[in-house]
Amino acid sequence: MLGYRDSSIPFSYIADTPNQPVGYAHDLQLKVVEALKQKLEMPDLKIRYNLVTSQNRIPLVSNGTVDLECGSTTNNQERQQQVAFSVGFFQVGSRLLTAKDSGIQDFADLKGKKLVTTAGTTSERYIRQHEKELGIGEIISAKDHAESFLMLQSGRAAAFMMDDILLAGEKSKATDPDKWVIVGTAPIQEIYGCMLRKGDAEFKQVVDDAIKATYSSGEINQMYNKWFQQPIPPKNINLNFEMSDQLKDLIANPHDRDQ
Amino acid sequence: MNYSWNWGVLFQSTGIGDSTYLHWILAGLGWLLVIAIVAWSIAMLLGSILGIMRTLPSKTARTIGTAYVTIFRNVPLLIQLFIWFYVVPNFLPAPIKSWWMNDLGAHTSALISASIGLGLFTAARVCEQVRTGIEALPRGQINAGYAMGFSTAQLYRYVILPQSFRTILPPLSSELTNCVKNTSVASLVGVAEIISQMKTISEYTQNTIEIYTIVTVIFIVINICLIQGMNLLEKRLRVPGLIAGEK
């Protein structure tokens, strides 16, 4: 049973066919399935899909409904209490999306300005912890990324703080993508991994080996290119998101830690 | 099940200032009560007026009452809140709209929309109960009232309403608990009430089952208190010999 997301673009999402996820993380998930078929010598191993959301994904993996979830799940300490993570396959940093002419270059420029972020995210948590020392005027928590971006576009906030890849996604959807720019040095880095149940070392080995195989063969580069630097379905948007140095490091030295 | 339990989750620090998750839950509870109280006040006031209108001799009054109930009772609550939050502000006159969108915080505008939306929705349901309460009275009482020379207003004030409100107290308690539970929908327009706090805490700590259980218990406790209060009210207002008055 594979877990997938419906709108984690470009990791795991529904493009044109209902119940058929596509995406970078989903391609890796299929690699794992291939490896399992060989390992178990069951060429017609059936796979079934189960849609998960950011709220239910961890309970569903920990209670065994879903065997493997590859989407956009950050590997962190709290989650490691409940589930196991594969080696990381993506690294994000929280940065700022702002208008090109706003004069904001980094987090230090937020003094006295209004900042929007999405409620319930690690970015929100970080920025609220550091609100005082950065001297931010006001922090607005919007309920989803689209609403956060709307706050930015309508001028109710000067900058939008979020994971850089999600900012690139919002930016590419805008009517005038060139007006917006992603700036700042990420104060927090997070690694995405596939989730599987705890205490199944054998299964984890298969998952890790399958993902590492794409790293050592260099196949990962084509997969990355396909989803991050080419037009992707359903709207043929190109995210134009270059592979970060951190991700290059991760691919060179794969690990399943949270940092 | 491979789950590590942590029932002490509420007393963990959130990492922001020196607050714990308990503070968040209490803040959420506070907003829940604000929405519930405002919405219930709107619902009782408007619902009673509309319920009376539906029983008046005037055809216009009855049509208005019926139309209101038809619209507000048949559209899902979530859609109503979305309409109040996203659609209606766009049709406000320009100066009010700019004040609403820019000067009022996003949270305050969501809070107002949610309270009004829930109030108007619940009003339709209260209206129906008030109407049934009035219609449950024997027709003879109304005729007798008119025969004694009461005007319609006097008839309602002195004969009908004192009895019908007593009759409908039990269904009104259910409606009150519904109103409290329905506040959870406000989290979807961005009010930081208890459900949205619950989701955030669950996201931060991953102790999903614990935090959902705690919030469930909070809802049960609030509603039990409300029902006890309403039962007490029923006892206090009981008129021996009447419909809701038997010993």
Automatic annotation (TrEMBL), chain B:
Transmembrane segments: 20-53, 65-87, 107-127, 209-230
A single cellular component GO annotation: ATP-binding cassette (ABC) transporter complex
A biological-process GO annotation: amino acid transport
Classification via Gene3D superfamilies: MetI-like
Record-level Gene Ontology MF annotations: transmembrane transporter activity
Domain of life (superkingdom): Bacteria
Keyword Cell membrane attached: yes
Residue stretches making up the ABC transmembrane type-1 domain: 29-230
Primary localization class, coarse: membrane
InterPro entries hit by this protein: AA_ABC_transptr_permease_3TM (IPR010065), ArtM/GltK/GlnP/TcyL/YhdX-like (IPR043429), MetI-like (IPR000515), MetI-like_sf (IPR035906)
Membrane topology listed for this record: Multi-pass membrane protein
Keywords: Amino-acid transport, Cell membrane, Membrane, Transmembrane, Transmembrane helix, Transport
Keyword match Transmembrane: yes
Subcellular location: Cell inner membrane; Cell membrane
NCBIfam families for the chain: HEQRo_perm_3TM (TIGR01726)
Membership in a protein family: Belongs to the binding-protein-dependent transport system permease family. HisMQ subfamily.
Protein's name according to its UniProt entry: ABC transmembrane type-1 domain-containing protein
Source organism of the structure: Acinetobacter indicus CIP 110367
